[in-house]
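Lab notebook page, bench 4
Experiment: in silico fold of construct C2
Operator: M.H.
Input chain length: 534 residues
Purpose: comparison with the prior construct
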Amino acid sequence: MFKRKRIYGVRTSITIMVCSVVTLVLLLLYVIFRNQIIPQTRQNLEDKAITIARTIAMMPLISDGLIQGRSEEIQAYTTRITRPNDIMFVVVIDMNSIRYSHPDASYVGKPFAGGGQDIALRGEESVSEGEGTLGKSIRAFVPVYDGRGYQVGIVVVGLSLEKVHRIISHNEWTIIAILLSGALLGALGAIVLARRIKQMMLWLEPSEISKLLEERSAMLQSTREGILAIDDNANITLINLEAERLLRQAGIKGEALRQPVSEYWPTLRLENMLNSGVAKLDEEIDLNGTTLLANSLPIWVKGAIVGAIVTFRDKTEISHLAERLSGVSLYAEALRGQAHEFMNKLHVIMGMTHMGLYEDLQHYIYGTVNNYQNEIGSITRHIKDPVMAGFLLGKLSRAREAGIQLILAEDCYLPSAKGSEIIHELITIVGNLLDNAMDALNETDNKEIHLAFHYQTDRLICTVIDNGSGVPESIRKEIYEQGFSTKGEDRGMGLYLVQRSVNRMNGHLTLHTTEGHGTEFIVEVPYIVEDDDA
């Protein structure tokens, strides 16, 4: 119901606007016709009267008849030409205004009635309105000259004023009929145009389109990803502020809009997508030392490619975000392991309580508390950084759940780090190495992992050893690549993150492994401690 009302409203609104424009144009045309065509009609009738009067005045019969006083011949001639020319009358008068012809023969020889002949008596043509014996008329006065050029009289041709008004009125109504027909055709055209515009505008009002365009533009400019789009001619049609910032940072400057993308950003090769139609996802683009992570996709409209769009971000920012998320996931995993272990112990306590085994329960709780305190004591003695200590407690709990013995070396020592960035990178390294070691022990009976920290004057050596099946020689060069894994899809991030964190800390990562006899990872990184622990 809402959509129908909205479509109807859009159609009605557009129809009204188009009809209003058509009506305004037609009114303007009517004013123009009224002020130009109608006066022209009267002028044409006056010109007709003047032309007939001139023709008659040039006849020798008229000038000779006036000179010789032969009114009968003049009367006969004017009577003969009056009706065929659709005029009211033809009157010939001499210089004394005495009629030599008249539609009513009884008026011949009498003075001209109605006036207006004075100008013609002075030798000038004139047109005027007057009322004579035949009624109101438009009269054209033309002087008559003899063969020597002397004026001998006047020819007066009259058109009925009522008939003139009737012709003018007829022309006016013709104009109105034409304009009304135009209005009808305009209204029909407006309806058809409204339907077409309605489809093109997706049922939106012009004001809604304007508001939507402003909102979309604001959204586009405020996004944290760079966005660049091209049309089917590979010319840039859209670029947001973030894209301009990233490209300017990489050394690409200048006006981008309406420029060929092959000239503005040649290494992108976005124009090739117009032919291939194949999207490129998570593509790394090196741009003058800046690495961008880009997603390029073709734009399809009605089954045809009409352009392409690319979104991109600085890979350094994405990497930093991924590291932060990986750190948080490691903390969450540690807490989950501890919570699961304590839940199991609570279930044991509840079951022994229900069975009334209070003495056994007392021994169980005492042993559990002692074990936990021993673990805490061992970790707090060797691990002085509280974040790493809490993290390792969680890993111990998870290892016990998996049936793995996680052994912390007796001589290990980790002082508190100066700055959270150092311990954050170290947790990423240790956490992923321990997770990889646990995965490597899935098919091992006696599962053991040895962890050691050795601090030596601003340097820290971390060792993780498992007794798993080892790393096959054929894949040792590939294990640090992003996405490479022998455990299935959506894996292969652990050692990649370890290698990246080690590189970020300007450290070294060493692998010692023998196939079938376990794996040892040795990490050596700079480690700045707090002053009180130095």
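Observations: Residues 1-11 have pLDDT under 50 and may be disordered. DSSP finds 14 helices and 14 strands in the chain.
Next step: discuss at group meeting.
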